[in-house]
Design a protein that fits this description.
- The structure is a single chain.
- This protein is of the alpha+beta class.
- Helix content is 22%, strand content 32%.
- The chain has helices spanning 4-13, 24-30, 34-45, 156-170, 186-190, 216-229, 335-346; strands spanning 53-63, 66-78, 81-87, 116-122, 128-131, 138-141, 148-152, 197-199, 202-204, 210-212, 241-253, 260-271, 274-280, 300-307, 311-316, 325-329.
- The strands form 3 sheets. A 10-stranded mixed β-sheet has the order 4-3-2-1-7-6-5-10-9-8. The chain has a 4-stranded antiparallel β-sheet with strand order 11-12-13-14. Strands 15-16 form a two-stranded antiparallel sheet.
- Helix 1 crosses helix 3 (34-45).
- This is NISCH protein.
- It is found in: Cytoplasm.
């Protein structure tokens, strides 16, 4: 340890997404390569001497206690824990959550010393992993509200790779087996085992951590919600969700020293007739077992919806990934008139 392949893989993965800004301290981490990166992990982050760094990923993260603050993090998976190396500005982003983050080191602010706080989730405390629709994000759940984190990878490949690595690391954990019944009868002997059981898209790993995947009902619920927003003019049977993707809406901020643009996280849903933007709650659903009341907001909140037939043109930027798309719609004053004419004269 570490193998040549692992060193190369971690070095390749250590790249901050170009569209997201991070603090100087995280830029320093992103500049480390190979051995320097592994030494940095053991010298500054690892809690136990004999743990091994297995995977590195840059991702936006959300915490259950601060559901409105999305922050950039370097996610490090070792054989003992998952470490979230966070931007130091996050600590001050939400003043109401001062009890959640320890502010002991605030006296270092004015020095040239750059801070990062590290959130640690031990693998032994891990209870379940919920994978989001189309592998765009995943939520890691521990034993309390402080231990629920969603990684918004916005990339099915990154999600899949992390889940595979996590399963491999969990397989190394020696957990005490579930107590067996004293009197073994035929049914308990040959009935369902606790290991590798597939039930309602729920995979129970040998470490007893649940991996929960979305089933068809979630897509059905989403299609029903979208149909509701379309004023019921569409037959639910013929409504197909063609694309579900976590994206950013670009809002240009004018009047500043340089015309900057802020990125607002949005869920884009494309059907055969419409394009929708939703604000989605990625952290509160499904409800954790200890939750005493439902979340304050719905899982999906409609922000904007336009008909594809009103789409005039799509402008594409020439920059590399992530690609910027601008949708230009015709400004139709009375949309209902067109829809009603279609229904009266050409529909049933």
């Amino acid at each position: 340890y570490p193998s040549e392949f692992l060193m190369q893989k971690i070095t390749e993965d250590n790249q901050i997404p170009v569209h997201l800004r991070v603090s100087v301290s995280l830029q320093y981490v992103a500049g480390l390569k190979g051995n320097a990166l592994v030494e940095f992990f053991h010298g500054n982050i690892a809690e136990v001497e004999n743990e091994e760094l297995r995977h590195l990923m840059w991702s936006s993260v959300l915490f259950y206690k601060t559901p409105n603050v999305e922050v950039m993090a370097c996610v490090l998976l070792s054989t003992k824990a998952i470490y979230f190396l966070l931007d130091d500005s996050f600590i001050h982003a939400d003043e109401h959550q001062s009890d959640f983050w320890n502010k002991e080191n605030s006296d270092c602010e004015n020095s040239s010393f750059h801070l990062s706080c590290c959130f640690v989730l031990k693998l032994n405390d891990l209870q379940s992993v919920n994978v989001g629709l189309f592998d765009q994000y995943f939520r890691i759940t521990g034993h309390s509200a402080d231990h629920i984190v969603t990684c918004l990878t916005r990339d099915s490949y990154n999600t899949h790779t992390f889940i595979q690595q996590l399963m491999a690391v969990l397989s190394l954990l020696a957990r005490t087996p579930s107590p067996e019944p004293v009197d073994k009868d035929f049914y308990s002997e040959f009935g369902s085992k606790n290991t590798g059981k597939m039930e309602n898209y729920e995979l129970i790993h040998s470490s007893r951590v649940k991996f929960i995947y979305p089933n068809e009902e979630e897509i059905g619920d989403l299609a029903f919600l979208v149909a509701e927003k379309m004023d019921g003019l569409t037959n639910l049977q013929s409504l197909n969700i063609l694309l579900y993707v976590l994206a950013f809406q670009v809002n240009h901020v004018e009047g500043s020293a340089q015309n900057t643009s802020s990125l607002q996280p949005k869920t884009l849903i494309l059907t055969s007739s419409d394009l929708f933007l939703f604000d989605e709650d990625y952290i509160s659903y499904p409800l954790p077992e200890f939750a005493k009341e439902p979340p304050k907001r719905d899982k999906y909140q409609l922000v904007d919806g336009r008909r594809i037939r009103d789409l005039d043109r799509v402008l594409m930027g020439y920059q590399t990934y992530p690609q910027a798309l601008t949708f230009v719609f015709d400004d139709v004053q009375n949309q209902d008139l067109m829809q009603n004419l279609t229904l009266d004269h050409f529909g049933e």
